[in-house]
UniProtKB/TrEMBL annotation:
Record keywords: Oxidoreductase
GO terms for MF: oxidoreductase activity
GO cellular component: cytoplasm
Protein's name according to its UniProt entry: FAD-binding oxidoreductase
UniProt-listed Pfam families: DAO (PF01266)
Top-rank taxon: Bacteria
UniProt source species: Chryseotalea sanaruensis
FAD dependent oxidoreductase domain: residues covered: 8-332
Gene3D superfamilies: D-Amino Acid Oxidase, subunit A, domain 2, FAD/NAD(P)-binding domain
Entries under PANTHER family matching the protein: GLYCINE OXIDASE, SARCOSINE DEHYDROGENASE-RELATED
């Protein structure tokens, strides 16, 4: 019998959550085996936007101050370690639709709690070519985008070079879990962490979680939009390279077909026309599923019966900003045994009742 290759953690899923967590643990000198594939997930098609003020009513993201300082540190450090560029801090501009909205934000900008995220308020057009903003708009800071494909490929290559990456789909029936160890084929570890997004429905250990797939479609377009700002009002336009922009995204909970749709295309084109007056050519259309939760909070922590089986999921539409935050929370818990003050808000234990309900039905 051949000797096992021993790791501290097996991480299943090489999307954004798994990639960020793997690197976080690696930087804490833990030996990680990252297992993943290139099946469709939202991280591949995402524009990678990070924005502390979101939603139809523009509310500040939960734990925004901590989350956004954490992401700045994490991705900047990752760039230096990888020697690659994938993190792009950039202001976001949101045109006003009414004088009332303009006045509301003038008032909010006087509050220190909001001012840290507001670069400037325009009471007349900001002068960005092609942007419909006769009433001015809100220019936000601590915003920008992550090129998720470049980032995840950099993480993949990083672990490949260390012989700590396996590209395949995990076979759950080949997984042996005991109190003291995890064994999977030739690999052995203390713990296994599942970062599978909506694929968690196939996982016998976490298929009881209330992960809800939210389908999103995006367009890649060629246009002459401004390249030094992200326009975001009902739709975002993220500059990927000279003359190329990512537009998105749709939010579909009913039609979960695994394909792009005419409906998605028309919705994005209509929203684009509402805020941009420039011509454009559609280069590509993509789709993906975001893993969301009923309370819009991520899910991290231990399985109800196996404390060496861990989950990190439910990052939803804010994966780029939440991934470093929850990875730090989870790493502090796993490596040091410390539950930081915000851990309880995202702890999987809030859904344990669903597990026991499923067990009792068997």
């Amino acid at each position: 019998m051949s000797e096992k290759k021993v790791f501290d953690y097996l991480i299943v899923g090489s999307g954004l959550a798994g990639s960020v967590l793997a690197f976080e643990l690696d930087q804490r000198r833990k030996r990680v085996l990252l297992i993943g594939n290139k099946q469709n997930h939202s991280s591949v098609i995402a524009a990678g936007l990070f924005n502390p003020i979101t939603g139809k009513v523009l509310s500040k993201t939960w734990q925004a101050e901590e989350i956004f300082s954490q992401l700045q540190r994490f991705y900047s450090h990752a760039e230096r370690e990888m020697g690659q560029k994938f993190f792009y801090p950039m202001p976001i501009y949101r045109p006003f639709l009414s004088v009332e909205e303009q006045n509301e934000w003038m008032g909010k900008s006087a509050s220190p709690d909001w001012a840290i995220f507001i670069e400037k308020i325009y009471t007349k057009s900001g002068g960005w070519y092609g942007v419909k903003d006769l009433l001015g708009g809100l220019l936000l800071k601590q915003t920008g985008f992550l090129n998720t494909n470049v980032f995840m490929e950099a993480i993949r290559n990083y672990f490949v070079e260390k012989q700590q990456f396996q590209e395949h789909t995990l076979a759950y029936d080949k997984l042996s879990i005991t109190t003291n160890s995890i064994v999977y084929g030739e690999y052995q570890s203390e713990k296994i962490i599942f970062c599978e997004g909506t694929n968690t429905f196939q996982n016998p250990y976490f298929n009881w979680l209330p992960i809800r797939p939210l389908k999103g479609e995006t367009l890649t377009v060629q246009s002459n939009l401004p390249e030094n700002v992200i326009v975001n009002r009902g739709i975002y336009a993220v500059p990927l390279e000279k003359g190329i922009f990512k537009l998105g995204a749709t939010y579909e909970t009913k039609d979960l077909s695994q394909a792009i749709t005419i409906k998605g295309l028309e919705e994005l084109k209509e929203k684009f026309k509402e805020i941009i007056s420039l011509p454009y050519n559609v280069v590509n259309q993509e789709w993906g599923f975001r893993p969301t939760t009923p309370d819009r909070r991520p899910i991290i922590g231990e399985h109800p019966e196996y404390n060496n089986v861990i989950v990190c999921n439910g990052l939803g539409t804010k994966g780029v900003s939440l991934a470093p935050f929850v990875s730090n929370l989870l790493a502090e818990f796993l490596v040091k045994g410390i539950r930081l003050s915000t851990y309880d808000a995202v702890d999987v234990s809030r859904y344990y009742s669903l597990y026991w309900k499923a067990v009792n039905k068997r």
